[in-house]
Specification:
heterodimer, A: alpha+beta, Ubiquitin-like (UB roll), DNA polymerase, domain 1, 2 domains, six-stranded mixed beta sheet, about 20% strand, B: alpha+beta, Aldehyde Oxidoreductase, domain 4, 3 domains, seven-stranded mixed beta sheet, 19 helices, 29 strands, about 25% strand
Amino acid sequence: MTTNISSGGRAKCELSFTVNGERRTVRVHPMERLLDVLRQELALTGAKEGCAEGECGSCSVLMDGALVNSCLVPILQAKSANIVTIEGLAAGAQLNCLQEAFLDFGGAQCGICTPGMILAASHLLQRNPQPTIGDIREGLSGNLCRCTGYVQIFDAVAKAVQFKART
Amino acid sequence: MTSNRIVGASVPRKEGRDKVTGRAQYIDDMTLPNMLYGATVRSRVPRGKIKKITFGSGIAWNEFVIVSAKDIPGKNCIVLIVDDQPCLADGIVNHPEEPILLLAHPDRHALPKAVDTISIEYEPLPAVFTIEESEEHREIIWGKDNTFKTYLVEKGDIDGVWEKADYIVEGEYRTGAQEQLYIENNGMIATYDPERGVTVWGSLQCPYYIHKALMTLCNLPADKVRVVQMETGGAFGGKEEYPSMIAGHAALLAIKSGRPVKIIYDRMEDMAATTKRHPSRTRHRTAVTKGGKILGGEIEFAVDGGAYTTLSPVVLSRGTIHAGGPYYWPNVRIRAKAMATNAPPHGAFRGFGAPQSLFAMERHMERIAQVVGLSPIEIRRRNFLQPGQTTTTEQTIREAIDLEKLLDRALELSNYHAKKQRFSKDNRMGTSKKGIGVAAFLHGAGFTGSGERNLSSVVDVEACADGSVRVLVSSTEFGQGTKTVLCQIVAETLGLEYDDVTIAQADTGEVPNSGPTVASRTVMVVGKLVQSAALGIKQTLTTSGALERSYSPAEFRTACQNYVAAHGTFRSSARFEAPSDVFWDDEKYRGEAYAAFAWAVYVAEVTVDLSTYSVSVNDLVALQEVGKVLHPVLARGQIVGGIAQGIGYTLYEKVIWQNGRMQNSQMTNYIMPTSADLPPIRVFFEEMGNIHGAFGAKGIGELPMDGPAPSIINAVEDALQVRFDAIPLLPEDIFEKLATESISKSGPHSAGGVQSQ
């Protein structure tokens, strides 16, 4: 890692990590938030800022398999990490089963929490492939949604479990 | 053409794929070359004269673009109803967080420090923070008497009823402010060049409100202002009026700098500075017979409007008209007023005055029931509006609504009677008390009174070269499903496939003014217009001979392609025309207030834990008559989402005010429900149809906001046998009330306000 002082007076460093299966190298201030690096340096704008304090979960991404609020992660911490964002979930034009279910069962309304919510659901299903409704409620409680009242999100996750079981 | 293939089916949301893949473009996802970032310097005092502004040291101020009131090319106001709200304070501030200066810089990290370094000296002026202080008139902070607007509704002879009453029942009810808390904060990008004028892109509900505000502020003609809606991450009324302010700020910075300017609020700024639901106070005095019939009543409805008029007159209007609930009042007098205080202006939020006055009405019905000695069910049954009767504004109920039937079905679905009995037995023991409560209510769809006539909305439907048709409206999508439902209506009307219909981005450079996306009007009012415009396309194609009277979707596409190839694309327009039999008197506030009402009965079941004083909702049955349901998944999504917000309004969401400023402007200390907090919400529809809406639809978006608060608080009263007449109701409020009640040792319902005659 090399560090220098940019013209703006903010020290920058170069670091690399994997995003959606691709190795990426950025040159940014080490305390820059992972969220900003994804959105501004890498143009991956699916992760959203809702509160900037880890309450709403709309900036959720997967980092080395863990669900993190990317607004709370300094980029230095993401060095060499394996990151998955909403953009990495679908295989080309083929939607992931969660995306499909959110679309069909009303899991997305305004859509701003949706990328984070789908990643949280995906994280839940990785740990617990057959969640009960209680598990889903609990598993998604770190991601706020103001539109849906969550019920159709639960429906969508439950349906995705069924899709998965069929395929 | 088969009927209703598409209307009534849960087709995929038009923009859904973009939303689930993260591709949907919200305002903060957009960047323009050479763009600056803007920030707002705001008042730190509730009221005062600005004496001196000092730009602190250690900042390279020459790198910043700085805008003050004197840089405004046009009139310094945000045009809406009354032109009293400045875009930037000029010499005087009237509320905390009032915008004073604007800064822009290429590096957004440079802004917070610069804002902090600016110090503003004020000569403080006495401020007013509550409805009561405002009505005392000790300090006049707005107009002659601190009053933005009053209404008087009078029906029958209210002064003659008191002597005929067996009981006179009085009560006072209060509701607090509520933050809309859309997850996407407000934001705008503006550009300016002398040729094209100002263009703004943003998170917003009402493109033409902003268009009008910018024309006045920037002194530009209509064709030099363009407003484009980006994907909008929730709004709920919270992006109805304040976006005009932010668009104005971004435009002023863009004009001064000659560069694109982006302003994105962070959560604290959004919560502290932008609008919230109006706090309210409602007083009821009701004359009732021994048999529980309402003879008449006086209702005083007051809302806290904050420092400027903004939308308070119309919020007050809706609250006033809904104040009598779904009941028959032979005689009534409703006095309503919106008062000024030195808080940021309160504004639109789903329900728009109705949740406030309906909370009071439905709590007051419980009180009447107790005084008369009837059950909460029976008192409602005996007073429900019947077809042929008139509302408080003397609107005759023409539809065949049967509220008793609706009530019976809700009681059955919730197993009300059995539960009520079981809870009252079980509650004798233990520290956990259960209760069940009912609320009956109505919600008017569309603008109030002459509102739709004045809006005179226009929509276009366009025949495109590829044979598809495109809907052009200023109605915006912010989660409700506007795009989807309007396309369904057109596809159904023209006998096309859903995918044959697209909808244009809400861009004032392209779409006509179909009015604001508010007031549960989109599906009912705009939907009907879109349907009529679509028929115009069909008529053009058939009269020209391009299309047979009976056709398949493929034949339509071919005919449309051929016609457009020969004659060019064409549009069919429709403009709103008020039905001739609809009468409304703005002076007397009398007549047909709404083209249609939706009706509902909600039943809430709660548990109050007497060791933590917390209330949990265990079940919520929501039964409503909303006309024809055009999209079952979206409709259910609206109801459940509204109920979740209503539960937050009732039990969680408390705005803590200090000197007119919100103290808890963060998601960590302003608590909205999470997925773990909500009960099963069970949604049921009755469908009666409605002649005014497309395919029989009525408005739906706001209705579910009205029911949770009264049904839940009625249930809490049932559980504890203690009366609570204010929301939000937090555990500490319950603790305090129970402590006071046990000290005074008074019976549960012995507090004043009841006279027997």
